[in-house]
Write a structure and sequence with these properties.
Structural class: alpha/beta
Organism: Novosphingobium barchaimii LL02
InterPro entries: Calcineurin-like_PHP, CNP_phosphodiesterase-III, Metallo-depent_PP-like
Family: Belongs to the cyclic nucleotide phosphodiesterase class-III family.
Radius of gyration: 18 Å
Protein name: Metallophosphoesterase
Keywords: Hydrolase, Iron, Metal-binding
Helix content: 10-25%
CATH topology: Purple Acid Phosphatase, chain A, domain 2
Bound molecules: fe (ii) ion
């Protein structure tokens, strides 16, 4: 995790927060549009919060790396549960990031912008002794310590955003099911460090929630997907404007759906369409009648 320095700058900063492109099942129209927006509008940085691929296959990584290296702005890439080799167990355990070679310098890399840092937090693990499958998040002691060390290196007063794949919600509200292990403690620790917000993916619907923690409130911002594996909203990405201490989020999409209608009010378990009437969906509610194909 090494920072890149930037000159002092006043005025708002604009980030594009992309997630869950899932090359292999990407929405070609949506990714062409996102790329065009990046080329035309040149945001200060792009944060991609994981699930670059569908099955961590070599051709999917080649396509992802090609698409990402063509972006002419600073980029940080987090690792999602779909990006760790599933069938090749040797690689899964001993070289889980080997297939990221072409974008190695961007993976889990801190971005230093004028008076703002985007600091990565690893939530994807190779194995979880607590449960199977291993698709949900886990903030290990080591991962949290690395993130805190990166925060401690920053000049005092630097505004901080965290980028990770899994939302940090530890328990599903409805029934207390375990989602991200150690999420509650992590949220409290980040709030106590004055973190402005946590950017995440994994859900495939956008959200913008403020969670109360014993150390104060913490903003949780989720981006939708740019893949065909939609949950209840059309493909989208977040435009995030940081203006002083204020963060403004717009869930941009090709269907002209208003941001508030794109956002869900509670974090569900994962990207799959709702299975019961209690599952949270966005007001636009475009739940696919059947699960999108997974191949
Ligand atoms: Fe995903
Ligand atoms: Fe995911």
């Amino acid at each position: 995790m090494h920072g890149k320095s930037a000159s002092m700058h006043s005025g708002p900063l604009r980030l594009f927060h992309l997630s869950d492109i899932h090359f292999g099942l990407e929405d070609t129209r949506a990714i062409a549009w996102a790329k065009e927006c990046i080329e035309r509008e040149k945001p200060h940085a792009v944060a991609i919060t994981g699930d670059l691929t569908m099955r961590a296959r070599h051709p999917e990584f080649r396509a992802a790396c090609e698409w990402i290296t063509a972006l002419d702005v600073p980029v940080t890439v987090e690792v999602g549960n779909h990006d760790i080799p599933y069938f090749n167990l040797y690689e899964r355990f001993f070289a889980p990031y080997k297939r990221f070679k072409a974008i190695e310098r961007m993976v889990e890399s801190r971005l230093d912008l004028p008076n703002l840092a985007i600091v990565p937090l690893r939530t994807t693990t190779r194995a979880q002794w607590q449960r199977f499958p291993w698709s949900n998040g886990w903030v290990t002691q080591e991962a949290l310590a690395q993130t805190l060390a990166a925060i401690d290196e920053l000049p005092k007063g630097t505004r901080i955003l965290i980028a990770c794949h899994h939302p940090l919600t530890e328990r599903r509200e409805r029934d207390g099911k375990l989602l991200t292990i150690n999420g509650t403690r992590t949220m409290e620790t980040l709030a106590s460090r004055g973190v402005m917000g946590v950017l995440s993916g994994h859900i495939h619907d956008p959200f913008d929630l403020t969670k109360a923690t014993p150390a104060g409130p913490l903003r949780m911002i989720g981006a939708g997907t740019l893949s065909m594996r939609i949950r209840s909203t059309p493909p989208s990405f977040n435009e995030i404007v940081i203006d002083g201490d204020e963060i403004r989020v717009t869930a941009r999409n090709l269907e002209q759906v208003a941001t508030r209608d794109m956002q869900i009010d509670e974090v569900p378990e994962n990207a799959l369409p709702p299975r019961t009437p209690q599952e949270p969906v966005s007001p636009v509610g475009a739940v696919p009648p059947v699960d999108p194909p997974v191949h």
